[in-house]
């Protein structure tokens, strides 16, 4: 049986709890993701996709329900343990790449390892170099983010998400700001990583063509999973 | 990336480097503030040292005098006052009782460095038709010149005092039309007189003393003032000039003399120094406050500008502590680099000021002394100010919710 990476049990998320303006954006979400799976998360704007991604990414906590990462109940963890688990297990790719502009492309890839280890050892630079090669950007490794194209920036963001060798990569509309060709190339890169290293992916997308090329499509409508 | 630098330092330096203009402006601001502090501190320390030197090299640090002569009320056999009014007696020139013993005791005192007995009194200097009232100080040159640096103030002749010599001030020399080598007739109130040769002319820095002060050998003064073998004061210098008042009180308590320290006799000078120090401290505090608020303002803006970066770092596993330290280090670095720039500004200002502002006689207004401690303390204080100023923005950065931060 495939190893379980992520499991959500009756997860709800509400804002302004206890106030007249209380709004529940996620209702009783059950979801399971195994190692090596590539899931697409689709749905209209405001349906709760990003909220679900934030909860899965341990950036936000559910109001009720349970979230397991590799079998560990995250509800029992404190802030520091959550931060550590997030850093070691989950990689993020955002729509706006969010590279740190003060650093070069390769340094951005080194960043998660640097945050984790504290010092920029030679092994960290070597690992970042390998990842830059893997995403085909060795030539622009010394460039600042501002001096790269959107597609290149998103590839750097993917390399950064893979730096810690995560079990799960969460991608929030990673191709949303790219032209069709670049979008396709970025998606293929993620798919390739997924196949080669068995990293699980959960990708929010509005692009149905890309969604269909994933292992499974989870459609979120009004805070509930439709399929 | 420097492999010996931790993540927080690398991020702090990069963030400061990226915000070049912002960093440059705030470092300039801190530099000017620190420059003002360095300039004022060094200038005032120099000026005070100069004033202090002038005061302490033209007068003894402690002066032992015979106690005031007082009239005791007359009582009858029953202990009742015979007379209700007691007139204050005139203070005639008298010698310190058993002064050689007191001098020896002073020489043995570890706190005292130089002891010099002096015979002082007033007389009339006469040359031809001109005459002037003068104050005579009969001194032992070997010890007295260690207390009052007469040789340093000589403008003509030399600081030599045999029994026929006299050293006079520049104003007195002018008033009497006397030159070096001329003879002066010095006449005491008692009528006794002596003819002395001018061996030196001194400029004591003030018109009054230059008009009145004269120096002769101790024996000459004793015979002129009719107090053979006596002295009116014993002048002392002490190891710690600021302890002079305590030492004076101790001496007075254990000897039959009145001991006046330079602190007591120059109370106004001391008050002026204190007032200067207070205003200096106030200026420093307010400059430091404006520097601190400047750093805080820049970092608050930086936290807002970098909220997305902070969110990403948090998503990548950076702890709140790491984010806090990134901004604290930025504050500390701004303070430290600003202090270095400010020290250069301060030194440049001092060198320039020193070169253009002189005393009336053309000598330097203050000694140009750069104490290493001033720069070290300034750098430490500026760095601490930077750290403190960064505390609020750093806490704000550390508390940022990653989701909100990434969303912007």
Molecular structure report:
The complex is a heterodimer of chains A (227) and B (408). Chain A is an alpha/beta fold. Chain A has one domain: P-loop containing nucleotide triphosphate hydrolases (Rossmann fold), CATH 3.40.50. Helices cover 36% and strands 26% of the residues of chain A. Chain A has 7 helices and 10 strands. In chain A, the strands form 2 sheets. A 6-stranded mixed β-sheet of chain A has the order 6-7-8-3-9-10, sandwiched between helices. Chain A has a 4-stranded antiparallel β-sheet with strand order 2-1-4-5, with helices on one face. In chain A, strand 1 and strand 2 form a beta hairpin. Chain A is globular and about 50 Å long. With 408 residues, chain B is of the alpha+beta class. Chain B folds into 2 domains: 187 residues, no CATH class; 158 residues, no CATH class. Helices cover 55% and strands 17% of the residues of chain B. Chain B is built from 15 helices and 10 strands. In chain B, strands 2-3-8-5-7-6 form a 6-stranded mixed barrel, surrounded by 4 helices. In chain B, helix 1 crosses helix 13, helix 2 packs antiparallel against helix 11 and helix 2 packs across helix 13. The longest helix of chain B is centred in the C-terminal third of the chain and has 39 residues. Chains A and B meet through helix 2 and helix 3 of A and helix 1, helix 12 and helix 15 of B.
